[in-house]
């Protein structure tokens, strides 16, 4: 027999699940709930607590806009009013920085992207007896929810999926499962297909036909459980993307900020945090530079020494031919830029992966450059990394929160830290968004 509990939701945990205190004093975390609500939960046979009924709803509760909500694992917080969700994400960032040891915490500027604006997505592919499913995994499951609608995704991506279902179903390279990475570049959709079996000659012909019929400049491929970079399976035209007015050719599967608006907001926040006296001849250091999302706009203001560990991305940045950028391929988690070199830079900018900057952050804290601008996609990692800056005598100068993963618990932030002994004139914080 299932256990039933009625209780208030105390708060939302880091992943957006409501925390409910059970009669035995333990706390259960339940998706689909909001802080301040009174709910009825049911514990299933596996011991998982699930929402049964909202007895007293929060004023922030809304009807989820997507009919796949609850089945598709992509958007876990569509039950929350968007403005309230943005406030909650800002509070996550503030809490992370408080935990790191900073006080006072500046009031963040906040930006939220609109629906139907996401331009990149990683989709699961599953072969069924009578269909090919393309979508996202259901939460806590390997089942694939077929993506027939999506209010977060750019419609140009969604319109491609029926053709992909037809073509992928015919491929010998997919026995049971695959993965589909789609970037919407200025040149058109850029695809990387990962399959559980090698690509056959007829498969390449079908992919080339798909690219030609749907205006796809490039389709890359590699094995699902393989290593190395994707090979080009079909090429139907040039591949290019504009970043701050500079044209680059990203490699297959290149990292791209989730939306064009959020990319611009992140760039604005970084540029606004730079010191006002930074000149065009000054040299800043950028870590985890990627293909140049920040490097290229920074080069308009100063010279940039850019470090990136992914060789194809670094090559794309070099190929842009910007003489104000010196790009170097370097695995910063194994071979960090050392403290003595970081100390010479007036500003160090970093946009590390989800896990944070690891060994590189220790060198930054030891080098103590005058200013550190940290772009974060993970408040937990931000808190750990920023704690080293707090210990090294930095103060928190500005925060920008960008909600580019609409209806999810993911949070982007740009934080500027100033070394206390550094007395330099600065520009004011960004007020965009």
Number of strands: 22
Q: Do you know the CATH architecture of the largest domain? A: 3-Layer(aba) Sandwich
Distance N to C terminus? 51 Å
Our estimate of the beta-strand percent is 25-35%
Domains (count): 3
Total helical elements: 10
Helical residue percent band: 10-25%
Write the CATH fold name of the largest domain.
Rossmann fold
Which CATH class of the largest domain? Alpha Beta
The largest sheet, given as strand count, sense and whether it forms a barrel, is: 8 strands, mixed
Backbone shape = flat
If you average the pLDDT, what whole number results?
A: 94
**Whole-angstrom Rg:** 23 Å
Question: Which regions are unreliable across 5 or more consecutive residues at pLDDT < 50?
Answer: 423-433
Enumerate the strands of the largest sheet in spatial order, edge to edge or round the barrel. Answer: 6-21-22-20-19-16-17-18
Structural class: alpha/beta
Question: Quick one: CATH superfamily of the largest domain?
Answer: Vaccinia Virus protein VP39
GO molecular function, one term: 4 iron, 4 sulfur cluster binding
Pfam family, one: tRNA_U5-meth_tr
Family: Belongs to the class I-like SAM-binding methyltransferase superfamily. RNA M5U methyltransferase family.
GO biological process, one term: rRNA base methylation
